[in-house]
Each structure stands twice: as C-alpha cells, then as structure tokens.
Amino acid sequence: MSGEQPWKVDERTLSKKYRTDVNRLIRAWKKGLNDQEITFRTGVKPSTLYLIKQDIELAHRRHRLAQKKQALAQAQALGQYQIFFNPNL
User: Residue 26 CA to chain centroid, in angstroms?
Assistant: First the structure.
C-alpha cells in the first residue's frame, strides 16, 4: 500500500453538483468544525451538507472495496489462499 497514491475525492464534480465550494467544506471538517458551525459560517443548508458528506463517504467506501477486490485477486493469482475444507492438501 505504500506505493499507491492517496485517494482523493473529486471536489470539482461535487462542487458543480451541489453549487458550493466542497473543498472549503472538507477543510472545515478537517479543522474539526461540526456541521452546525459549518452551516452557520458557509450558509449551506444542513440537508445539503448531509448529502455532500454521504457522497464523499460512499465514494471512499467504493474505493476501499475496489482495493480489497484487487488485493484478493492478486492473492489468488499468487496462490496465497486458505483451504477451508481439507487443510491437509
């Protein structure tokens, strides 16, 4: 995993979709601000903020699932798997 590039969310697409600066919202979350403070400072509705957070989490979950599938495929290709039914083979 050390050779892989870090995962990044497509901020430009989300910004167009929700018509707000998603990069600014992500920076605020990283600073430790809660959703109420972000809503007050940026003027973004709480429901929109919730949808943006869900989209980011879903994209991250999909990325992690793809990594797991790729790692599993590589492990099977190398023959590193467990035999559950007959371990003495």
Answer: 12
Please report, for the chain, the start and end positions of each structural domain, with discontinuous segments joined by +.
11-77
Q: What's the CA gap between 55 and 48, in Å, rounded?
A: 11
> Three-class SS of residue 23?
helix
CA atoms of 13 and 88, how far apart (whole Å): 53
Q: Tens digit of pLDDT for each residue in 48-85?
A: 999 999 999 999 999 999 999 988 888 776 665 566 66
| pTM, to two decimals | 0.72
Question: In whole angstroms, what is the distance from residue 38 CA to residue 49 CA?
Answer: 9
pLDDT value of position 9: 81
